From TrEMBL, chains A, B:
Pfam families: FAD-oxidase_C, FAD_binding_4. InterPro entries: Alkyl-DHAP_Synthase, FAD-bd_oxidored_4_C, FAD-bd_PCMH, FAD-bd_PCMH-like_sf, FAD-bd_PCMH_sub2, FAD-linked_Oxase-like_C, Oxid_FAD_bind_N, Vanillyl_alc_oxidase_C-sub2. It comes from Wenjunlia tyrosinilytica. The active site is at residue 453. This is Alkyldihydroxyacetonephosphate synthase.
Length: 533, 533
């Protein structure tokens, strides 16, 4: 078992990512946004850390004593700085609340177990003392998944898994690795690199998100066409529950009944705490190549991507921006805006594999009106592929709201879904004549369909939280009405709860509740998330 | 909605497959088996259909009336011939019992609904009148999955889904098709062929097995390296349950909580009756090519397959026989037995795709001590790939027991698992000096591991059912002790029940029970299968 030599630091309490990183918005880009949005935005509050008032910690003495016995006094943190940094995730609504000095839902304590058995002990203590438990990995949730809601309970702790940081095993014959839940991706990949392997899992949250969080939220990385989604990578997992330990997954495939791994994957901390995951790993690729493609318009580009997704040889990364996003990306990076739509194709593997995949991809895309263009757009994407959330903070500082939302559907449903969501958001936000910028790209492709990733930008109004909530509601309703899934890779948390019954049906919700009754009979695990009450 | 022009007929009541097909064992092959097994086998009974005594149908009048109201009188069958053909599946134990005239577990009636709503009505009637319901597709189960066990109930019906035989929808943009559960594969592929597409799902049971059965048992086809397992093909499904209709799966991928499709896939009729499945389909390949490869020995061959499975370009079908199976296959087909092990590689696609995959496969296998040999072994395999069960019947007629069992594990665990199972079976069967032939092949490969498929042949003794049960117990215990899964693609039924708790843990079993309580509160659905009581 090895641990990383260096750990990734905490994110800023009131913004995404590294507090020391400078704002990422050029003057020209800012000027462009201002021009596009027209009206002068409403300034947003910007509380300093010392302005924030946290509620008094409400853990009873008995519960605190049990937690201290479980993990040691230094690993039960009640200081304001730690509690503040576990008050929520990084959705626009989280950021607006933090910037306004609101930390009303701060946990009563942050508890840091060091291994599976300590997690079991914490869960037992909290079940006995009726304290809600919110599992916390990287804290990157953008759907309310890590906000401590108390539900029916008097207190709530955040269970921060950062000390579960070991690479437990590597098997380079079977190409598997067992990784503890609290490893952030750069740490995991760093440990794996010593064995010549990598996860290949690179979502936008790569720098902060954790192995356990990926499994708990059914994450998808930007190279998922090559590496699969995180659910595809999970061979087995271990979860600590209130009822004891659950170990699922013995072999690469099985017909031994329903695949129960898929009950824990995506369970968002409501059924148990995933403490380690045995993942498929891949050789570190010899080469990685990105290239940019132009299509005359969105519809043509989507058709080309469909054909590519249905061919046997595909790039590892496949993305296509609509006309608006293509224009804005070029403007933000200071380049000249092309007409039509740009796509990025990313290839990984040995030199031969990359050469073959590039050749077949090129032949296919050229048959479908694609043109290979200079690689600057692909280079921009590669350099900035974890930067989106920093841009959002830079815009917030200027009174501009920016947020993303995503869905997926079959190819046949994709273009109507695209229009319905974009129209819904525009309708909700521009009721009083405000300008709204809606960008979209296809971010992940499958043989049978694709995901759509929207970015919405508008000037803040007087009540920006209500303003965004209205847009989100319109988007979710449009998705549900158009046959899309309410979330392709952001998970459910609190924000997508209103559409869960529509997504899985009343009986589906009952199945989730029944699983929860088995594993978490007192209901302490992440109350208020995922499962409609 | 279209139905097949011609339907596949019933299987023989006392043997696998087409009753009109002649016995499939050459005199030379039979002589070889006799020579290898030494002792004269114990003759097995061979009852004629008129010898078989079925129990009197035990359905109450009220239940019968409700069923008649639900599906019409002509679709509630109580004649002996129909009941006999629904008394069980096609395991060795099933065949031994039928040959002995034993049909004690015949259903009280065979009910044939024509659509989803009629299935709902049948389930409601049976729940009210406390009648067990055994969903029945092709009747190909080799693990006891379709045997009507009454459990705590006074009566049992078999729900034969053959009239759910429509292709409901095809979407050649999204490459999906919605197929009703009762379609056998040749019927489904026939309907799909009109649209230029195919499932690509070709297990040994291809001719008789059904779409619903594939989903309910988590089936794997022989070309699964190219097409995926059936679970990978399911985009969505509709199930009729005692509590109503469950529809799961909206998009190619989703992060909307646990993937509940995987609770119904593999549920073996214990939670609900899958009535239709929206599957991924593929273009009918322009070319299909099989080739044979020789390896100096099993270990070398397994290593080569591992490297092939972990490479980005792979054949659609990958199989490797151990030395014994290689020898026996050659003998059965009348060829000269090569030394070492033979493998079959199958390629499908456009001419370019097949050429490229053959080229890269050849380069890789040659680097790992493989030799491309004449294609006769591959041709034999292709011609005989659905013939195994017919051979078993031919051997039974000679007093020779033959049965298969299968498992899967990671590559690192595979060779120890292979030895443990073979030794366990040999030890169990040859305690009194009897000869035992144990054949094995790798039948499906994955990046992280592979499946092992064993065929066991021995002379029947006085109590052949007990004789095989002992071997099966030894194999199952060896699998559980060696890190394998108790079943890779045969499912659980009754035969693998003893190892289910080991497979998924006590909490896993509780999760299955909880799902059953939600969807089948009275417990009428396929009692005695899959879920340990």
């Amino acid at each position: 078992m090895t641990s990383p030599a260096h750990r990734v630091g905490d994110m800023a309490w009131n913004a995404w990512g590294d507090p020391a990183r400078p704002a990422a918005l050029s003057d020209s880009a800012l000027a462009l946004v201002r021009q596009a949005l027209g009206a002068r935005p409403h300034p947003l509050p910007s509380a300093t850390e010392s302005d924030v008032r946290l509620p008094e910690p409400a853990l009873g003495d008995d519960a605190a004593a049990r937690l201290t016995a479980a993990v040691g006094a230094e690993h039960v943190r009640t200081d304001a700085a730690t509690r503040l940094r576990h008050t929520g995730g990084k959705s626009l609504d989280d950021l607006l609340r933090r910037r306004g000095g609101d930390a009303a839902n701060a946990p009563d304590a942050v508890v840091l177990p060091r291994d599976h058995d300590e997690v079991l002990a914490v869960l037992a203590a909290c079940a006995e003392h009726r304290v809600a438990v919110v599992p916390f990995g990287g804290g990157t949730s953008v759907v309310g998944g890590v906000e401590p809601l108390r539900g029916e309970f008097g207190g709530a702790i955040t269970l921060d898994l950062r000390r579960l940081d070991r690479l437990e095993a590597v098997d380079t014959d079977s190409m598997t690795a067992t990784l503890q839940a609290g490893l952030r991706t750069p740490e995991a990949d760093g440990l794996l690199a010593a064995h010549g392997v990598t996860l290949g899992h690179r979502p936008q949250s790569y720098e902060y998100a954790t192995i356990g969080g990926y499994a708990a939220t059914r994450s998808r990385g930007q190279a998922s066409t090559g590496y699969g989604g995180f659910d595809d990578m999970v061979l087995g997992l271990t979860a600590a529950t209130v009822r004891g330990t659950l170990r699922l997954g013995r072999s690469p495939a099985s017909a031994a009944g329903p695949d129960l791994r898929h009950l824990l994957i995506g369970s968002e901390g409501t059924l148990g705490v995933i403490t380690s995951v045995t993942c498929q790993v891949r050789p570190i690729p010899d080469e990685a190549h990105q290239e940019a493609w132009a299509f005359p318009d969105w519809t043509t580009g989507v058709t080309a991507l469909r054909r590519l997704a249905q061919s046997p040889v595909r790039p590892h990364t496949v993305r296509l921006s609509d006309e608006t996003e293509t224009f804005v990306n070029a403007a933000v990076s200071g380049g000249r805006a092309p007409s039509g739509c740009l796509a990025v194709m990313g290839f990984e593997g040995t030199a031969d594999e990359v050469a073959h995949a590039r050749r077949t991809t090129r032949a296919l895309l050229e048959r479908h009106e694609g043109t290979l263009v200079d690689s600057s757009a692909a280079d921009d994407w590669r350099r900035s592929r974890t930067q989106g959330p920093y841009l959002r903070d830079a815009l917030l500082a200027e009174g501009v709201l920016a947020e993303t939302l995503e869905t997926a559907a079959t190819w046949a449903d994709l273009l109507p879904l695209y229009s319905a969501v974009a129209d819904g958001v525009r309708g909700a936000l521009s009721g009083d004549g405000a300008e709204v910028i809606v960008l979209c790209h296809v971010s992940h492709v499958y043989r049978t369909g694709a995901s759509l990733y929207f970015t919405v930008v508008t000037a803040a109004e007087e009540d920006p939280r209500a303003q965004w909530a209205q847009a989100k509601r319109a988007a979710g309703d449009a998705i549900a009405a158009s046959g899309g899934t309410i979330t392709h890779h952001h998970a459910v948390g609190t924000d997508h709860l209103p559409w869960m019954t529509e997504e899985v049906g009343e009986l589906g919700v009952e199945l989730l509740r029944a699983a929860k009754r088995v594993l978490d009979p007192s209901g302490i695990l992440n109350p208020g998330k995922l499962i409609p009450s």
